[in-house]
Automatic annotation (TrEMBL):
Sequence ranges assigned to domain DUF2089 in this UniProt record: 25-70
Top-rank lineage group of the source organism: Bacteria
Taxonomy of the source species: Bacteria, Bacillati, Actinomycetota, Actinomycetes, Propionibacteriales
Record-linked InterPro entries: DUF2089
Pfam family, one: DUF2089
Protein name: DUF2089 domain-containing protein
Length: 107
């Protein structure tokens, strides 16, 4: 049994609900997906919205697709070189964890 409630009015609904594939996404992923859809799949627009380089935007979108079970391909390093990956970490566009995974894929 699942209970859902509205924080502002106090209304509650209880029942057995089927979860959708988008329900497990966090706010960051939902925002990324909204921008991508609103821009009709324009990766450059997603790049601008995220404030990252094009390869990083592609990587983040590929990770989103993977979380949704839509990747269909093994994780690709999004065409980034070692230098680009390190540069993205230095700029704060990639986390060290993301960079480590990408660097391992290059080997």
């Amino acid at each position: 049994m699942t209970r859902l409630g509205c924080g502002s009015c106090g209304t509650e609904v209880g029942g057995i609900f089927a979860s959708c594939e988008f329900c497990a996404l966090d706010a960051k992923d939902l925002d990324t997906l909204r921008v991508f859809l609103a821009s009709r799949g324009n990766m450059r627009e997603l790049e601008r919205h995220l404030g990252v380089s094009y390869p990083t935007a592609r990587l983040r979108f590929a990770q989103l697709l993977e979380r949704l079970g839509l990747s269909g391909e093994p994780d690709q390093p999004a065409g980034m070189t070692r230098e680009q990956i390190l540069s993205e970490v230095a700029a704060g566009a990639l986390t060290p964890v993301e960079a480590t995974r990408l660097l391992q894929q290059l080997s």
